[in-house]
Batch of 4 targets.
Target 1
Amino acid sequence: MTGVSPWLALPEGRPTPGLARQLRAAHETFVTRGAPPPRSGVRPVVRDSWARSLGSGVDPDGQGPPVDLLDDALAAYRAGHPLAPVLPVIRRLLVEDAEADRMIVAVTDADGRMLWVEGDSRLRRLAENMNFVPGARWSEDVAGTNAPGTALALDHPVQFFGSEHYRRPVQPWSCSAAPVHHPVTGVLLGAIDVTGGDHVASPHVLTLVRAAVAAVESELRWLHREEQPGRRPVVTTAAPAREAAPVLEVLGRDRARLTRAEGAVELSLRHSELLLLLAEAAATGEGRSAERLAAECHGGGAAVTVRAELSRLRRLVGPELVGSRPYRLLGPLETDVGTLRRLLDRGAVTAALDRYPGPVLPRSGAPGVAAARRRTAVALRTAVLASRRPELLLRWTALPEARDDALAWQTLLEVLPAGSPRRPAVAAHLLALRRAPRG
């Protein structure tokens, strides 16, 4: 059809017969053989984006995009972002009707990080399975062909239908996005995206997104004018940035690392165990006596030894973090274990697996730490097995702790496609596990 914009995925508003099948075949040929897709069946903007995705090393079946920001760090970053003051405009124009229109509305920064993901609650829960969540980075070089990432890469409004996406886990979705610029400086600030079913790839949705961008840029221009000298300052509803809480990292580490505003310090193994145990207790609003900590650290050692270690720990991290009588945390302390559990609680299994480099303090023999190690591993394993997603099971069975996990290997074999080149090796490993003598 002549005169049709190359940026439109479905010029007629709906897919033509056989389009999805044609795109899947072209995509399969491209990612398995490296053969260029046919020019008659794949739009140039899609072909070029697939080539860039391949060149960036994006795995078409791999894990979801990384989640760069969580909790306090995400809240502080969003509060200070230039698009925060105009979020009410986006909500009024797009989000308010998103549930009825079966759509998700996302706002990213200039690097493709999701700042806000709102709209249809059922779709948002489904989208979490591919890490389409606040804090995740959906730039094209990381997430492959997708509307917000490609709109930022090309600095142009664009939409994609189903199998035009490079990564297969994203292919059930369609999306339309447009970049947002500061109207005075011209600086790229981010993108506004609408994601959902096939109807989201129709021309009127891209027009709607572009209209929302125009309204946002108009609002930004007005705010810029109001902020000039001689004018009254603009009052926005953006929350003030909060100082980030200290972070304790214990996953896959022989000794914990504590990061605070003044820098990071690596703790001794005993201090690592004690601070983790206090953080675990704080999660349920509790403290610990010296006697209980002795039992959790030594399996019944002397309480006086624990008191001495805690005294040294308080001098190291400051009395404003660790209190006594009972021993407890006096302020917020984020842990990578807690972050992983929150991700699992909201069903973001891919993001949780992204943040699991290994077991909790693997060299620790402290009973309390061993219990935290088991709880964390069991929760993650249960979620991965329940997902029945091949890419997640492949990553789980690659971990040393899953080497002898027969149920995980059996589940992986069940969900791998019949033609997968990985099936023979998985089947052989499972057979070896079943033949191995039971101790």
Target 2
Amino acid sequence: MGVVLLVLVLVLLVVLLTRRRRRKRTAAVLAGPPGGVPAFRIVTLGLQGSGKTLLLTGIYRRLQTPGDRGFYLRVPHEQLIELNRWYRKAADVQEEWPRGTTRGELREFEFSVMADVGGATEPVVKLGYLEYPGELLTDPDAPGSTAQATLLQAIAGADALVGIIDGFRLLQADQGDQRGTLMLEASLDAMINAMLPVRSPIVFVITKWDLLDHLHPDENERLRIVRDRLMATPGFADLVKVHSARRIVRLIPVTAVGHDFAVYADGVVRKKPEGRFRPGNVEAALSVVVPDILRQTELSLDRATRAELLAAAQRRMRMGPAEALRTLGAHFTAHAARVLASALGAGLVAESGLMLLLDTLGPRDDPAERTDRMARLGEADRMAEHYVQARRRVVGELQRQVAVLEAKLPVSRLGGDRWGDW
């Protein structure tokens, strides 16, 4: 009896230990990607009524399903409710336009870029989207208020900046309306002064692009006309010249409602009773951000650091993502962080951003080689490799969208990429 009891106890211990090991392995697999989920912060600037709210709504509506991109955006439920409310209000011809941000109001959204990771849908990149009213830059701050200081701090720590140029003000300026011209110059002055010291990529978005259809039937020529006008505005050309040598600057036209939904008459933009709500090019404002950040990060690294990154990418092919990350070592990541802090500004690109760059630099293997290598990896490394491949697919698709944009609108690239001898 005692022997039987001892055997039962031993069997029970083996079962418990086996389950414990399985739980540990499962925890390792579900712990997420090595280096964490890369997260970048985007700060958007624009005067009240310039179209920031509709742009944000259009971006989410266009990217909320995978389509043929292989990824989609997800937001927390309370933010989803707000975005859907704005959309319904904007698209309903019986409703007034959605209320924009007011002075001192901050809107912060968290976009998770969702993609297939080993058969499950997981976030592979996160984009924090902060929307500030430009009046904080054009008007004196209220006594005792810290809103202006908070905005300037957010601009200094942003991974990318989006400046909103109101197409309505461009239309007024084109028609000789002095007030429109002054408002346009005031908004540009405010953004220029705030953007000159930063080291992050800059995207200027022209909203309400549909109001400028009359300028030229060809969209690229239309954009050239607007670009030439902006470059003639005091300060704008200087900003582009200063930043073009060190980072990427873009000018992207968008319409958050489409080219047959709104009409300008008697100084007011109204919805057409039979208008068709078809946003255009809105996703480009977000699609360019990650590729531009990665490009600037890569070009900011010195040759020795970049060589180390490439070597680490090669090692990843021979071992596994998790082990390659460990062999990268604290010394290297600290060194790379110091290099990036010097080139881009402290806090702009976290260690997880370095890991995303490492993923994109790695060599591509063919499907057969990948299958063989995956079979040789352990569970944790196999899941980490799924994350690597998912991030590569997302970044590759974003880079493809940037290439399409530049082929369609060559003049949208104001400058960038002329760095050193790379």
Target 3
Amino acid sequence: MLVYLRLLKESFGFAMNALTNNKLRTLLSLLGVTIGIFSIIAVLAAVDSLDRKITKDLSGLDKNTIYLMKFSFGPSNIPQWKREQFPNVKYDEYTYMKGAMTNTDQMAYQIFTRRESIKYDSKTVSDINIVPVSQEFIDIQGLEFEKGRFYNESEANSGASVIVLGNEIANSLFENSEPIGKNVRLYGKRFTVIGVLKKEGSGLFGDGNDTSAYIPVNFVRQLFGDNNTSLTNVIIFKPEKGVDMDAYKGEITQKLRNVRGLKAGEMDNFFINVFSGFTDLIDGILGQMNVVGWIISGFSLLVGGFGIANIMFVSVKERTNLIGIQKSLGAKNRFIMFQFLFEAIILSVFGGIIGLLLVWIISIILTKALDFEFILGVGNIVLGTGLAAAIGLISGILPAIAASKLDPVEAIRTGM
């Protein structure tokens, strides 16, 4: 064991000697490993960070939550021209389904509308995500409040001019003053602030609750009517736990087809989007990002491997005389081989560490600049180091074998 520790120490010395004596050559040789490790770990760290953010943002939603609307979350076999003819879901359909559906925990009605500006006195906050929803939405979404409350059933049904503001909007409009009870202007109307949400940070697509404002859906219905083509309506279902999802979707399909008078053989003119399908789509995209990252980075690692092999062959040639002396003094082939293998691994790991250091520095910069927590996990650090060591082992094995098979007399004579 002590022999191998001494061997590792000597190999480390040779590797550091190669770094100091041949700086440019070594730098160019390690560049491929550095870039390869940087590329792979950067992609994996980005995907891991994005996955954590997605999990955090969607933690308040049940994966079985269903969105009934005229659009599909994912790809569809139905031609686009046909999908464009699908009607919006109606509020009357929502009230009917609410009374007719079984095994349902909560059901809400939401309208997707354009972004607006909110004013308070001389201050204006623009590009606000307006979320008109019925009162049940809070039980589905699980909103958390810093101040105030969500609107109740009476306010929702009457279309009262009340509003719940995201944290960033409230801070921009009111700064240090109390927002609850104040009047803001939206759609040219006065709205009374009844709640402010807790700060969450940017959402999945950069549009979180901090920059959203919630108002009763019936206010928007009274303002724009039920047949406005610029709006998209959706009925949100939260089924009871343990429900057979296929049977539940079948019940939704049957009841809505009956309401719309669709005959047997006619295709459905709506989409039942299960939230788990959306998350599966995102997981698939993240998986593809991983694969692409590995493929691109693989080429860099291949180049890096050739660079390490090249520097090791040069190292063997430069130390031919020394190898001959070691073998003439009784050094075994295995000792010589391990000496060069350890040196190749140390050089490669050194390049990998530089790549990891670059990822760490960039992660700190991005976290501060983008308000997004970019995380370089321990698992990715271990993976990067292991990959670098593996590249060094594979790249150094041929030069090490070549060194171990040198004839001591020829090696000394060649070195002289």
Target 4
Amino acid sequence: MRILHTSDWHLGRAFHRVNMLDAQTEFIGHLVTTVREHAVDAVVVAGDVYDRAVPPLAAVELFDDALHRLAALGVPTVMISGNHDSARRLGVGAGLIDRAGIHLRTEPAACGTPVMLADAFGDVAFYGLPYLEPALVKDEFAVDRAGHETVLAAAMDRVRADLAARAPGTRSVVLAHAFVTGGEPSDSERDITVGGVAAVPAGVFDGADYVALGHLHGCQTLTPRVRYSGSPLAYSFSETDHRKSMWLVDLAADGTVTAERLDCPVPRPLARIRGTLDDLLADPALTPHQDAWVEATLTDPVRPADPMARLGDRFPHTLSLVFAPDRASDDPDVTYARRLAGRTDRQIAEDFVAHVRGAGPDAHELAVLGEAFDAVRADAVVREVAR
């Protein structure tokens, strides 16, 4: 069976101040063409179809167009909701849409109920594991501790139990939206940390022939059977070096997996440039970036006058301007920024306790801080879902 694996469309999202709807429309057209030209048997979309719980109308219309075009090809499509989606909204009408060959899997309770497809060699069970927010699904999975690994392991137990009851030789594909250990994140993914831990081991998915992951925006191979497709478009300058693509996966009769990367259209290349303003405006080595979307980091010790307009004369698609002046290592601003760099909100809070009291939080206080941050996150998720 030939499967096209994609994820993280984020329909409705902008890139800085650039509306990405045209680029997203071009990607959907490319997706449909790829399905047709490569004789794809099934499409899987591993979450974050939309960028937010209540997407703009133009994004909904584009999604509707994508569903109609995929259904018209007669190629089954399996989709799950991601942490950016409203599972309830995305899943509206799922029962009816099923009849058109578009299978929306947004309910945690249905993790162990597959979409059954078949090829010349027999059945393939597609299990959709939508994004599982631990605080909201721990009761459904009857787990004592609300953590990503715990709830995903419980969901996979249901998958393995269902698969074991099926005919010998039934192959399996699992769709999941999660941060799996070994994956490389970028700046454009929303934090899903719970209890200070976001990543789950790839071994959670043992028993599946292929695991189609979503959430991380870089295309990655964690094992030959566990892969991220990444987002089809760049949504942050941290993705400057990404090659945006989809996985074309061939699932053999014995469950063996082979995969090929298929490139996605690039609306405009990205570039990160760094230096003093005068150097950036004069350096001939930067000429190839004049048509790119640019993030410029200025290292001038004193902020220059009108830098965005001056950069725009040479780099008309400059979207982001960062000031990082070259200063002595003992400068207070430098040391403060260095202390905060790469630290989570919880770690910063722990540092603050140590700063004002002279000693860091003890084990009990660490637990209280962790519970407080998890409660804030869970409350934010509940409010987002309720919108």
